[in-house]
């Protein structure tokens, strides 16, 4: 298996370029579906059936099983096809590489992960095809905006699984992700009363003033030691410089380590936004918890230990880390499935014009992934 993957390095790099140059921003349904159709063809050639879950607004989701798949495969693998980059980005900044690093929109998050997964499957097809009977693969199209249309699909397919492998890129130095914060999103709209700020300001009621009070109170909910962060990230309001603002709004994000925190902080946000500080203003709050935390419970710890043992067997140092960023691993973890994330290649500067992938990590991470699938498949079947 190691020899096979080593000999495919140039092929993998070529495929990576092809995928990066297919634009697939979340809101570019045509682009995401192009990636999906391309991957469908690749997996069909490897003996996989692909069930296309049609979507109107976002790209279609794909559910893949080997033709000899068990009735109830025990391993779920999740990878997203969308990127954060708007249509047109790839034309301005196409795939490139210098022999050590590859560059381009979505190269590490997560076109590189698709290359690793495909070639891990190809390697297993050559050396141990039977282990493919125990995996189910989900490619979703909207992870970068919180998986609004694919969450229920992932949760449903995760039920009863023994392991979940999430194909987000690895962290610095190749670390896997064993836990992630959960979070929520809220929209606060405030209505005041407009008036001329010079002639009759006393007749106005400032929605912006009310918003200022709310921002201060909301930010005071942050507790770094407890892993809680509340951030008002976007605001707007008013109509002109010389008008008492008749309206204002804010988008609020919450990050937490546990579901208990999520429920408590959500309630505190609702309480703060339930009554005005500026008399005469009206408040409307919408939103709630969007992603549960991915928790490193005892079963997850056992999975991490097993993956570290596999890495040691291959001569690959494997460590794990907790991160504040979200992923679809939150949904599998919340279903009680031991979940490990960050199984993709090594890179950095995701979501920026300096995004890169370490080319040598393609081979190493693909080998690690293939061996993990092989070991977990046999463990699930026993």
Give a verbal description of the structure.
Pfam families: M20_dimer (PF07687), Peptidase_M20 (PF01546). This is M20 family metallopeptidase. Residues 179-280 form the Peptidase M20 dimerisation domain. Helices cover 36% and strands 24% of the residues. It is an alpha+beta fold. The protein folds into two domains: 2-181 and 293-381, Zn peptidases (Aminopeptidase, 3-Layer(aba) Sandwich), CATH 3.40.630; 182-291, Alpha-Beta Plaits. It has a six-stranded mixed sheet with strand order 1-2-6-3-7-16, with helices on both faces. A four-stranded antiparallel sheet has the order 4-5-18-17. Strands 11-13-9-14 form a four-stranded antiparallel sheet, with helices on one face. Helix 5 (107-127) packs across helix 11 (359-381) and helix 9 (298-314) packs across helix 11 (359-381). The protein is elongated, with a radius of gyration of 23 Å. The two termini are 23 Å apart. The model has no long low-confidence stretch (mean pLDDT 96).
Topology:
Layout lengths: L1 H5 L2 H12 L8 H16 L3 E6 L7 E6 L8 E6 L8 H4 L3 E2 L3 E3 L3 H21 L7 E6 L10 H8 L4 E4 L9 E5 L1 E10 L3 E2 L10 H13 L9 E9 L5 E2 L2 E10 L2 H14 L9 E10 L6 H17 L5 E4 L5 H6 L4 E2 L6 E2 L7 E3 H23 L1
Parallel strand pairs: 3-6, 3-7, 7-16, 8-15
Antiparallel strand pairs: 1-2, 2-6, 4-5, 5-18, 9-13, 9-14, 10-12, 11-13, 17-18
Helix pairs in contact: 2-5, 5-11, 9-11
